[in-house]
């Protein structure tokens, strides 16, 4: 039987390449299992209890107490020059937390790097590990010019460490609970480690805000779309079946003054052709003149489809006035007017989409 721990130490001390794949597998499994063992007794275990920012304030206070105790200073006095002048208190505590995390989880990698050798075994063998000027282990990145740390590469992190878990959730939460890919790309610019993608997926899956957004009772469910009606598919003549809607108001300027206008949009329900008429008000008589212009330019529509304007008071008044003249329309033009359901605005998407393109 091979003692895995002895094999690991020997490999780190001699930088020996194992030719036996079974020994390599045992070494990697032992190193991965050691992560979870260290997390239970981690110095930063309190990051599991509080949120990231509160835990960082606690960590800042811990370093302040340690500093004042060591140099016999008064705790009630302001911070002064306790921390490095090039880093703020928060960044200093964050740097110390990263160093503690790496010391707890990557002690073997530190031994190899301290001896001046490259890490060629374990789950981090392909990361190109190296020290930066602050003593932090970083990974070699291909896109060094795009990294936010002046090309130094992402920091090596253990994804299941309490500090890293809290940091990832804090970034995800303050990014408005962004998607998995956005959070992963954002984290990989700063941190990198084995199993990072799986941990991010787990954090997003367990995020209570994301659970609310994914829940069915908060998601508006559209009814299953039905087959298109006959007047949407049967071609008779241009604008034989016509959808109509109003866009505006738009403020225009002439030589002396400013005034508002609306645009009446007529669209063929079969060919999606569009005809626009500018109107100066929402009166029924004005709309009838726009409809007459459509009839003169193209053809008289047999079917008119529009909303019933319960959402907009001005359009509601317009359609109420038009409804009084429906008998005149039937007698003179033989137009069948159809209104979409009151609380189903998506049924008028055939012209609402064109209104959006117009704007």
From TrEMBL:
| Gene3D superfamilies registered for this protein in UniProt | Ribonuclease H-like superfamily/Ribonuclease H
Q: Which InterPro entries match?
A: Integrase_cat-core (IPR001584), RNaseH-like_sf (IPR012337), RNaseH_sf (IPR036397)
Integrase catalytic domain residues: 234-359
Q: Which SUPFAM superfamilies match?
A: Ribonuclease H-like
- GO BP annotations, alphabetical order: DNA integration
GO terms, molecular function: nucleic acid binding
Q: Return the protein name.
A: Integrase catalytic domain-containing protein
Question: What does the record give as the organism's lineage?
Answer: Eukaryota, Metazoa, Ecdysozoa, Arthropoda, Crustacea
């Amino acid at each position: 039987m091979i003692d895995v721990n002895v094999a690991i130490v020997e490999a780190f001390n001699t930088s020996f390449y194992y030719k036996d794949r079974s020994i390599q597998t045992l070494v990697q499994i032992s190193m991965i299992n050691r992560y979870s063992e260290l997390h239970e007794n981690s110095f930063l275990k309190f990051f599991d209890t509080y949120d990231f920012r509160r835990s960082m304030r606690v960590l800042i206070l811990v370093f302040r107490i340690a500093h004042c105790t060591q140099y016999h200073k008064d705790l009630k006095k302001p911070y002064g020059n306790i921390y490095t002048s090039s880093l703020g208190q928060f960044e200093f505590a964050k740097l110390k937390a990263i160093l503690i995390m790496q010391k707890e989880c990557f002690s073997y990698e530190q031994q190899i790097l301290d001896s001046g050798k490259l890490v060629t075994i374990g789950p981090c063998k392909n990361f190109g590990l190296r020290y930066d000027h602050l003593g932090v282990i970083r990974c070699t990145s291909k896109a060094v010019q795009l990294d936010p740390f002046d090309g130094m590469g992402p920091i090596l992190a253990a994804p299941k460490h309490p500090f890293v878990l809290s940091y990832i959730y804090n970034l995800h939460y303050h990014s408005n609970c962004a998607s998995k890919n956005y959070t992963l790309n954002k984290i990989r610019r700063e941190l990198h480690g084995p199993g990072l993608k799986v941990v991010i997926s787990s954090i997003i899956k367990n995020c209570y805000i994301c659970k609310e957004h994914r829940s069915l009772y908060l998601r508006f469910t559209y009814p299953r779309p039905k087959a298109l009606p006959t007047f949407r598919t049967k071609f008779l003549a241009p604008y034989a079946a016509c959808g109509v809607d109003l866009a505006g108001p738009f403020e225009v300027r002439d030589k002396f003054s400013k005034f508002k206008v609306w645009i009446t949009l007529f669209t063929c329900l079969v060919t999606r052709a569009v005809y626009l008429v500018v109107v100066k008000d929402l009166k029924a008589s004005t709309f009838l003149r726009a409809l007459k212009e459509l009839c003169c330019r193209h053809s008289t529509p047999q079917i008119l489809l529009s909303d019933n304007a319960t959402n907009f008071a001005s359009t509601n008044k317009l359609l109420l006035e038009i409804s009084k003249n429906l008998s005149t329309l039937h007698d003179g033009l033989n137009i069948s007017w159809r209104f979409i359901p009151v609380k189903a605005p998506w049924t008028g998407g055939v012209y609402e989409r064109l209104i959006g393109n117009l704007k």
